[in-house]
Amino acid sequence: MNAYDPKGGAETKNLICSSCDIQCTLHAKVVDGQVVKIHSSDNPIFRDNICMKGIYAPKGFAHPDRVIYPLKRVGERGSGEFERVTWDEALTDIAARLRKVIDQYGPEAVAVSTSDWNTSTENGMTRRFMNLIGSPNYISGVALCAGNTAAVNRLVYGWFPQPDFSNTDCIVLFGHNPKRHSWVPVFNAIVGAQKRGAKLIVLDPRKSEMAERADIWLPLKPGTDAALCFGWLNVIINEKLYDEDFVAKWCVGFEELKARVAEFPLDRVEAITGVPADMIIKSARLYAEGLSVIPWTPITDQQRNSTSAIRLHCILRAICGNLDVPGGETLQGLNPDIPQKSVYEMHEALSQAQRDKQLGADKHPVFTYRAMGQLEDATERVWGFRHINIVNGSYMAVPSAVFRAMADGNPYPVKAFLIQGNNPLMSYANMKLIHRAMMNQDLIVANEHFITPSAQLADYILPGDAWTERNSLLDGYGWSAGNKPSQKAMEPPGKCRGAFEFWRDIAHAMGLGNHFPWERNEDILDERVAGVASSFEEFAATYDAYLTPLQYKKYEKVGFATRSGKVELYSEMLKEFGFDPLPYWREEPEADPAFPLSLFMGVREDEYFQTGHRHIPELRERRPEPEMYIHPKTAAEQGLSEGDWVLVETKEGGVKLRTSFKGNMPEGLLRVPHGWWKPEMARGGTCLSGAWDYADAQICPDDDDYLDREQGIPHIKGVPCRVTRIANPVQVAAE
Amino acid sequence: MTSQSRDETYAKLVRKQKIGMFFAGALIKRRRSLWDRMKVALYKRMVPARDPADDFMRDEIVDAETEFSVEELRAFREGRTR
User: Fold this and answer.
1) What gap in Å lies between CA A714 and CA A703, rounded to an integer?
2) Exposed/middle/buried for residue A528 (C-beta within 10 Å: 0-12, 13-18, 19+)
3) Residues sharing a CB contact under 8 Å with residue A480, sequence separation 6 or more, in sequence order
4) Taking the mean position of all CA atoms in its chain, how far away is CA A734?
5) Torsion of CA A295, A299, A304, A308, to 10 degrees
6) Cα gap A217→A204, rounded to integer Å
7) A535 touching chain B per CB within 8 A
8) Among A142, A372, A474, B44, which is least packed by CB within 10 angstroms?
9) Where are the alpha helices (DSSP H) in A384-498?
10) pLDDT band at residue A7 using 50, 70 and 90 as cut-offs
């Protein structure tokens, strides 16, 4: 599939896709300086790793609405009215206004929101800039997607492991559903492992595509992952299916864990999860009897009990002997030959006094400096660096706390907001709060491709380059030891610049140029690959990926990168912060009869990634409207027909969607897709290109009942809701 | 799994991993020596490409080998087509 035979004078470039965060290795066909085709790599390791978002990228990047010149707001904030300016004009004014905010409120009054997946020339410059000016208030969408999981994993054993699909006996998917067009390399790896004979356990309320292929499907109630893990541990500990040697030598707190697990007899777990006890026993035995993996999942990331559930995943890996062994999950560390971008982030430049001001760290410390800072000695001892920012998920502020400070000035004002490749208005919980927060800013700068709903609230929109238009080095977000080069295949249009240039230019305008000595993005790339190639150009021509042999059981020599040097089943650190030192189960809030149904949010359709791609005609034709998935029986009970427009409401607000019947949905559960807006609708004001009609962030709660305690991330898997039929929404077109 | 069988499995998989790295060292390169090319050819025989019929989620968009022309993209960029 997609084998490519270059002809007709076309040039081929090797690229890493950034249309989503999975980083597929692809080829681009270039004719007359224009990428005309994206197809999968001919490398046998990477072949078949492609999806429609990559295939249609050339058209997406050629869209007539793409921002290709710097824009400055001319109307009221949020009016969506802009005029063209030069980069120099924009940078001079931005620097002056940033200085004014810092002088008046302190450096912590500057916040950044980014995503990392489409900013691959960033090279650690975002945090470098923030640390040098003295602000700890960096937030990212990874706070509720992988980055937070990475931080929780570090608390337990000091790294975020990668599953070894090639050798494992059993794969466990907690709600995760990799498909032909989403998480494609994971999908291909699972299909390959199953062909080899690996078993598949899927825990998912609905019978997903992966559930259909599973050896065991456990239709648990949404948001009950932690309770199910307690059930597994109950079986595994009682039947002594764990690795007793490893537990004795390398784990702390096993007896305490055992006592906690005893609080979860299988009848209790069955009552919480809805999964019959015999199925819990059968699946627990399958997990524990051989080498097994629990790949990262975007589902456990986003629950009221997220920290406990992620810790329980970690505990299962550890006590069952699946940690840092082939066929299990490997703690890879950084590539020894190529510095990862955390090395450039300069966390050492941020004083303890400024770290202490990081928003949200007092109540929800897990991924902030307050917790991650306590791992610095251990991280240096085991991995050789004091600061490692796996999946950008370490050293973050808590998003909800940052937005409250932006909106209300508590505990202190945040008055400047820099956005890079991110649509924060729609990417975190409680959109009304975020809107109020953004409307209360002295300065908002968006580095973007399009005038997104968030960019519509900005003072400046600075045009970003695309992944076909830049050289970059992808280091798997510091999660794996592999590094992959991506070649520039065409020039960016207009005055678009890369993420590196964005920070370099702002830093120079702020007088920090001596800390940003690289003239071009390629200069820093040359520096990073200097240990293995004479230049980035040579590196990219030589390698599809740069790997070094994996070392297993490294802990036998250096221990784990935790404070105890062992796997912390029981966390003294969490105890010191005032939390339960063991994983626990927190019951749902009391049911509200006004919201009798349950709502699953946070996952987008295959055609789109997060809030992007709705402007690409071919993808939009496949998925023209946001759809609510509902079981036909539940729909009938609610008086709904297929195709009806409905208002789905939680106590936070409502969104409009079209009804779509899905027989694989459990009764009583609705699914709302993530990230909908309509680029063709009117900008600014009360429309914001449809964000006020369709964006799921409006119905994501962020009050204490719906925040994970330790991380402060929202619970969006099983939120009480109701649904009402409405007339077709009026669509106000953009001028 | 008993301790003994765990150790045996571990040793076997570490050996398998070394063989994997033997091939990966060649596969990850774009500039390949004759020896690398031989290794890649051997790997391709051992691990053939998946038959599209085995792709349970096969999709016409992936199969279509979609390609744009320079003029088509230019017209789209200029708002002359959609």
Assistant:
1) 8
2) buried
3) A162, A332
4) 30
5) -10
6) 7
7) no
8) B44
9) 399-408, 431-439
10) low
Q: Shortest CA distance to B72 belongs to which of A483, A494, A59, A54?
A: A59
Q: Please judge whether A542 and B30 are an interchain contact, meaning their C-beta atoms are less than 8 angstroms apart.
A: yes
Q: How far is residue A189 CA from its own chain's centroid? A: 20
The β-bridge relationship of strands A416-420 and A110-114 is parallel
A534 burial (CB, 10 Å; 0-12 / 13-18 / 19+) is exposed
Closest by CA to A704, choosing from A715, A696, A693, is A715
Looking at the DSSP bridge assignments, the partners of residue A324 are none
Say which residue the tokens 């980014």 belong to: A114
| The residue type at A114 | T
Q: 3-class secondary structure for A588-608?
A: CCCCCCCCCEEEECCCCCCCC
Using CB atoms, pick whichever of B24, B27, B31 lies closest to residue A542. Answer: B31
CB atoms within 10 A of CB A339: 22
Helix axes A499-509 and A521-528, enclosed angle (nearest 10): 110
Q: Indicate whether A65 pLDDT > 70.
A: yes
Q: Which of A5, A21, A377, A459 is catalytic?
A: A21
Yes or no, beta carbons of A44 and B70 under 8 Å apart? no
Half-sphere exposure in the Cβ direction for A173 (13 Å, CA)? 31
Contact B70/A34, CB-based, under 8 Å? yes
Nearest to A487 by CA among A59, A10, A121: A121
Region class of A381: left (phi > 0), else alpha (psi between -120 and 50), else beta: alpha
- Distinct helix (H) and strand (E) counts, chain B: 4, 0
- B61 chain-A contacts, CB cut-off 8 A: 52, 55, 181
- Give how far the C-alpha of residue A246 lies from the chain's centroid of Cα atoms, to the nearest Å: 32
The vertex-A728 CA angle with A727 and A729, nearest 5°, equals 110
User: Is A93 noted as a catalytic residue in this protein?
Assistant: no
**3-state SS assignment for residue A732:** coil
Is B60 in the A-facing interface, judged by CB distances under 8 Å? no
Q: Which amino acid is at A309?
A: A
Query: How does residue A289 score in pLDDT terms, banded at 50, 70 and 90?
Result: very high
Q: What is the Cα–Cα distance from A568 to A323, expressed in whole angstroms?
A: 13
Query: Do β-strands A669-671 and A110-114 pair in parallel, antiparallel, or remain unpaired?
Result: unpaired
Give the strands of the sheet with A170-174, arranged side by side: A216-218, A199-203, A170-174, A292-293
Q: Which of A464, A467, A59 is nearest to B76 (CA)?
A: A59
Q: Quick one: which H or E segment has residue A92?
A: helix A87-105
Q: Which residue of B has its CA nearest to A196?
A: B47
* pLDDT (tens digit per residue) in A379-417: 999 999 999 999 999 999 999 999 999 999 999 999 999
Residues 148-167 of A with CB under 8 A from B: 166-167
Shortest CA distance to A393 belongs to which of A705, A632, A149?
Answer: A149
In tens, the pLDDT along A472-505 reads 999 888 888 899 999 999 999 999 999 999 999 9
Q: How many CB pairs under 8 A join A and B?
A: 133
**Tally of helices (H runs) and strands (E runs) in chain A:** 26, 26
C-alpha count within 13 angstroms, C-beta hemisphere, residue A159: 32
Nearest to A289 by CA among A205, A168, A409: A168
What is the separation of C-alpha A533 from the centre of its chain, rounded to a whole number of angstroms? 31
Q: How far apart are CA A373 and CA A386, in angstroms?
A: 9
Under DSSP, the state recorded for A309 is H
Label the pairing between strands A216-218 and A416-420. Answer: unpaired
By mean pLDDT, which of A178-182, A369-373, A435-439 is the weakest? Answer: A178-182
Please report the ipTM that was assigned to this predicted complex. 0.94
Distance from the first to the final alpha carbon of chain B: 60
Quote the CA–CA distance of B32 and B43 in Å, as a whole number: 14
